[in-house]
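User: For documentation purposes, I need each entry recorded in a consistent format: the amino acid sequence on its own, followed directly by the corresponding structure tokens. There are two entries in this batch. Please keep commentary to a minimum and don't merge the entries.

Assistant: Recorded as requested. Entry 1:
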Amino acid sequence: MTGLPADGPVVWPLAHHRGALVPRDEATLPVGSIALRYGISVFEGIRLYRQDRGGVAPWLLRPHLDRLRNSCRLMGLDEDCAADVPAIIDELVAAQGIDEDGYVRVAASAANSGGIDEAAVTALTVTITRAGRKRRPGDHEGMRLGVSTWQRPSDAVFPSAAKNISAYAGPRLALAQARRDGYDSCVLRTADGVISEAPTATVFLVEGGRVVTPRLSDHVLPGVTRAWVLATAPSLGHEAVEDAVTEERLTAADEVFLCGTGLEFGPVREVAGVRLSGGSPGPVTKALVDAYFAQARGATAPTGVDLGLPGGR
């Protein structure tokens, strides 16, 4: 779509909603829908990157769709909706003349009205927003990261593997508190006291060249960028492992960074008031960022990733 502003966030005006292209303002759900009453709506954020050879392409689309199917299964939604997403993205790109970086949001929501025990009727909604690099105060020095008093719930409370909107209510409160305390973001712990993840991103640390991230069993969402880092780090000469991570390990680490589809990479300079020794971004973080964008823009072949979902998906 031509005539869009050159700076600031931009939403392209069309949405694919319930099988048709419509203006975004018309992509609505009933006020009594199960999605609005009980928070039953899963989603994926997928980066759309401008390619070196021209045009745009969705990044790591297959694992995003695998996770969407898994989230739908966990939340009682129709997982078959994921099959239509690649064609819908192509349709939105072509209809709006998109030729720059974008953020695709895919939502599968329980659109029907009903009680808490009502079976869901799934509505698929796909939109694309203009997406440049994220900026924040002090970005050139890295982020200041707090350790929140809020916790990630166990899988006995809510399935960590479901990327459902209701799962972000608690992390939203944690992030708001961290900002009030002067931090850029935070990490949450489990009830057992080990580090889980940030409100919208995975946390990694670097210890003597080894890349470490919390285990999925620590109530961590199986992140697509997380899986990419675990698969890519060994090709850059760094062992990559999942392990129990404590606050003490974070503050003693050489490097710490957050990563996720929306954030991409967020180097950290300080954790809970302790400045890290390895600089921000450190050399391992820099190497991963360089590899990420080389692959995302089509200069090198993408790394295959395994999210660790049931059945190998």
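Entry 2:
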Amino acid sequence: MTSGNDTAVLRVAGRPVGRYVARPELPARLSPRPHLHPVTTLAGTAVTELGPADHAHHLGVGVAVPDVEGFNFWGGRTYVRDQGPTELDNHGSQRHVTFQLRDPDGFVEELRWVAAGAELLRERRTVAATELTDRTWALDLTFSLTNVTSSPLSIGSPATNGRPGAAYGGFFWRARKEAAAPEVFTADAEGEAAVHGRRADWLALAGSGWTLVFAGATERTRRDPWLVRTEEYPGVGSSLAYDERLPIPPGETVVRRIVTVVADGRLGRDAAASLVRKAVSP
């Protein structure tokens, strides 16, 4: 991984496949946070977007949570019960502390989640890139969030605050927007309506000439339902707080691991499942 000016280039077999920005210069309303963009296939096709017109606070690939004890680490408006999306001065930021490990194919990073001048969470983020075939590679991202305060914290979402179907928060990948909406499918379902808000060992998003296959790599991660958007915008994420808030007592840690297969071309179910097995296997 080469670096400079608070950025790092992630490489697979010597080829650049992702640019990681550790200290982005962004307005507070976007909840500034480290992110990967652009992420590309091995052939060089971009599969992420940064600050698109439809959602300026979508920042490539990263970790974003709309409600940590009332503070917004997602960006944009906050969903308020019985009021709807509301502009509030409640945005937090994820601040890069240090890279504890740096290699050409990945890194381990320490971050502070800060809001209203106080640190709420300390994060350890591990990112690794692995070649699977000459047309596919895998991005392995683990995040560990520790409550460093002396009080209980909880993670919420618009869904837990009264907006059904909007349980976003956690890992999030804003994909490339094209003229046609991408296809989305799991091992036994297809279409946004059939897979959004459901649990599945893996979920594939297929565009024109590229496929992303997302998989929970731990038993606890697989219990989180998927956030899926294809028509409004192309994006896939996890739901840490689907139907109830996720408590984090003082000193306790929440850990999730998502592995994403990045492929040139459009994969079918069998190929997607086979690559996930290869990417997630010990």
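Summary note for entry 2:
The chain has three helices and 21 strands.
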